[in-house]
Automatic annotation (TrEMBL):
PROSITE patterns per the UniProt record, alphabetical: HEXAPEP_TRANSFERASES
Signal sequence bounds: none
Keywords of this entry: Acyltransferase, Repeat, Transferase
Phylogenetic placement of the source organism: Bacteria, Deltaproteobacteria, SAR324 cluster
Gene Ontology molecular functions: acyltransferase activity
Organism: SAR324 cluster bacterium
Protein name (record): Acyltransferase
Any coiled-coil regions, as ranges: none
PANTHER family: ACETYLTRANSFERASE (PTHR43300), ACETYLTRANSFERASE RV3034C-RELATED (PTHR43300:SF11)
């Protein structure tokens, strides 16, 4: 994770990325079909692999969407939040805003209304249970649940 303060003066390239992210945020939220939601999130700058499904009302990297990488065949269900930044310290103590990249591994599943914090990596075929708060990395082939999310079960690579 990187701690730095966002400058008020953005370069032209960063300004264009920020405007593009804002313009396509609402269509990405409300698009009636999953392929359209993926399309609009890609336009915003989120790196998305093939076969990815994104549910309604997902907030994915609203400040720096290019810090989010969702690998092939991952599923993110409705109302999930993938935060690319955390400004709690900034607002409460005047500290720095924390920015971090998020990587969702291939065939991972994020349950409804889960929150993924900056700097988290979700492993291959990992399952995040509904309404989980994930602030640490999730190993591949595990099930995590809770607030904060903890490993509930590990399973074999070949599930029959």
């Amino acid at each position: 994770m990187i701690n730095y303060d966002d400058s008020l003066f953005l370069s032209r390239g960063k300004l264009i990325k920020r405007i593009r992210s804002i313009i396509f945020l609402l269509p990405a939220w409300f698009a009636p079909h999953k392929s359209l939601r993926v399309f609009f999130h890609r336009l915003r700058g989120v790196r998305i692999g093939k076969g990815v499904e994104i549910g309604y009302y997902c907030l994915i990297g609203n400040v720096h969407p290019y810090n989010i990488h969702i690998e092939d065949y991952a599923v993110i269900t409705a109302n999930c939040v993938l935060l690319d930044h955390d400004n709690a310290l900034h607002y409460t103590f005047g500290g720095d805003v924390i920015y971090g990249k998020i990587r969702i591994g291939p065939s991972a599943f994020i349950g409804i209304a889960s929150v993924i914090m900056p700097g988290v990596k979700i492993g291959e075929k990992a399952i995040v249970a509904p309404q989980s708060f994930v602030k640490y990395d999730v190993p591949a082939f595990t099930l995590v649940a809770g607030q904060p999310a903890k490993v509930i079960k590990s399973y074999e690579k070949e599930v029959k």
